[in-house]
Write a structure and sequence with these properties.
Blueprint lengths: L2 E8 L6 E6 L2 E5 L8 H14 L6 E5 L5 E6 L4
Parallel strand pairs: 1-3
Antiparallel strand pairs: 1-5, 2-3, 4-5
Length: 77
Amino acid sequence: MPQEFWVKVTPRASKDEVVGWADQVLKARVRAVPEGGRANEALVELLSDYCGLPKSAFTIVRGHTARLKRIRVARRT
C-alpha cells in the first residue's frame, strides 16, 4: 500500500532543501519558479535525493498548483 504525506513547498528559495517536519507537514524549499511545473519537478527530485528512492516512486496527488501538496510514495514489492 502506498504511503502519503503533505509537503509545504516554498519556491524561489536560495537553495533546495528539506527543512523538517511541523504539524505533520514536511517543509521543503526549492530554487525553481512555480511556472510550467518546474517547482513540482524540483520537489520530486529533492524528495528522491532526500529519501534515496527513484523519482518515479513519488507522485503529486493533490496541490499541483498550490504550495501545500499531497505526495504519494509507491513501495516496491
